[in-house]
C-alpha cells in the first residue's frame, strides 16, 4: 500500500478501534459497527423500505438500473421498496440517521461517517466473477491543460467531489501533500463539483484543469460515450480501494436484516440492467465484507488527513 508506506505513516500510530461512535449507538461486539438495539421495542420493521444509491449526476438513470434488484428485494422481504434519489452524501447520511433510509449503498469515503453517525451496517460490495473488487483514484486532466505530471498541478485548479469522498477528496489530499508537497490554496486552487460525474464532465468540457475521481465512474462514463476517451488524460493512479458498501440501518428487525442479506446474495445478475451497468467495471456479483477488515485502509487515510467522524 503505497500511501500507507509514504510520509503519512507517522500519523498512523492511532488505534482505529478508538474512533468515537455516536452516543445513540452501541458496539457491544467490538466489530466497529452499531449493534441491534438491546430492547426489542426499538427494532424497526417498516412496511415500506427505502433504498438509496450513492449520489450521482442523474439519479433517474440509476433508479432504472436498480429496478430489477429492487423488485427482487420486494420478493425476498415481502415489503414495498422505493428508490430514494439522494442529492449529496450529507443528505444520504442524515436520511439514515433520522430513520428515513433503511438500505443503502454508501460511497467508499462516506461509509465510515455513515457507520459512526447513522448506524449503517455494511455487509457487501460488488465484485467480479473471480471475487476481485475495488477501484483506483485517478487524477485526470484534459489534453490542452498543459498538465503532464502531478507536479504540473501547481498553480492550476483541481476539482474534488465532496469532503466525505475517499477518491474524490480524502485520498488525493493525503497523497498530494505527503508524496508531492502540494497543498490546497497554497499550491493549487481547489474546487468542489459535488459528484464524480460532475468532475469528469467538468474536465472533459475544460471547466476544470484537473480532477480527482474514482476510475470506476470514469470507466462507466467512457463506455456509455458520456465523455470521449481523447478528452481525458490520467496523470496519477492510486492503489486499489474498496468500492461502494451496501448495507442496512442497524435497528431493522433481525429477521428483516436476514432477508435483506439473502436478497443481495441470491440476486441473479444475468441479463439485468444492474449487470449491464456495472459489468463495465467488471462487477457481476455481491460478496460478503466486514467494515472492520475491508475499510481499514480508508480509516487509515482518514486518520492521516485528520478526518473527524463527529456527528452533528
Automatic annotation (TrEMBL):
Q: Which GO terms describe its cellular component?
A: ATP-binding cassette (ABC) transporter complex
Keywords noted in UniProt: Signal
Database matches in Pfam families? Phosphonate-bd
Q: Which residues form the signal peptide?
A: 1-20
Statement: the UniProt record of this protein carries the keyword Protein transport: no
GO BP terms:
transmembrane transport
Q: Which family does it belong to?
A: Belongs to the phosphate/phosphite/phosphonate binding protein family.
- In Swiss-Prot or TrEMBL terms, this protein is called Phosphate/phosphite/phosphonate ABC transporter substrate-binding protein
Amino acid at each position: 500500500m503505497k500511501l500507507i508506506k509514504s510520509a503519512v505513516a507517522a500519523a498512523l500510530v492511532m488505534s482505529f478501534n478508538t474512533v468515537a461512535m455516536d452516543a445513540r449507538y452501541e458496539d457491544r461486539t467490538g466489530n466497529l459497527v452499531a449493534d441491534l438495539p438491546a430492547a426489542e421495542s426499538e427494532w424497526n420493521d417498516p412496511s415500506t423500505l427505502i433504498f438509496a444509491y450513492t449520489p450521482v449526476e442523474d439519479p433517474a438513470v440509476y433508479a432504472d438500473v436498480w429496478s430489477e434488484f429492487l423488485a427482487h428485494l420486494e420478493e425476498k422481504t415481502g415489503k414495498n421498496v422505493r428508490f430514494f434519489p439522494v442529492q449529496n452524501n450529507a443528505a444520504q447520511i442524515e436520511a439514515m440517521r433520522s430513520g428515513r433510509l433503511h438500505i443503502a449503498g454508501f460511497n467508499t469515503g462516506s461509509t465510515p461517517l455513515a457507520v459512526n453517525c447513522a448506524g449503517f451496517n455494511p455487509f457487501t460490495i460488488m465484485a467480479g466473477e473471480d471475487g476481485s473488487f475495488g477501484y483506483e483514484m485517478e487524477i485526470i486532466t484534459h489534453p490542452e491543460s498543459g498538465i503532464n505530471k502531478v507536479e504540473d498541478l501547481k498553480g492550476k485548479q483541481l476539482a474534488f467531489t465532496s469532503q466525505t469522498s475517499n477518491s474524490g477528496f480524502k485520498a488525493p489530499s493525503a497523497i498530494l501533500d505527503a508524496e508531492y508537497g502540494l497543498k490546497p490554496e497554497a499550491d493549487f486552487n481547489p474546487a468542489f463539483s459535488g459528484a464524480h460525474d460532475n468532475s469528469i464532465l467538468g474536465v472533459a468540457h475544460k471547466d476544470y484543469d484537473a480532477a480527482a475521481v474514482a476510475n470506476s465512474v470514469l470507466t462507466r462514463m467512457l463506455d456509455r460515450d458520456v465523455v470521449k476517451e481523447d478528452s481525458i488524460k490520467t496523470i496519477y493512479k492510486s492503489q486499489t480501494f474498496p468500492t461502494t458498501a451496501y448495507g442496512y440501518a442497524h435497528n431493522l428487525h433481525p429477521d428483516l436484516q436476514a432477508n435483506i442479506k439473502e436478497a443481495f446474495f441470491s440476486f441473479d445478475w444475468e441479463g439485468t440492467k444492474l449487470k449491464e451497468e456495472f459489468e463495465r467495471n467488471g462487477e457481476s456479483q455481491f460478496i460478503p465484507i466486514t467494515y472492520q477488515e475491508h475499510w481499514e485502509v480508508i480509516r487509515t487515510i482518514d486518520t492521516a488527513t485528520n478526518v473527524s467522524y463527529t456527528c452533528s
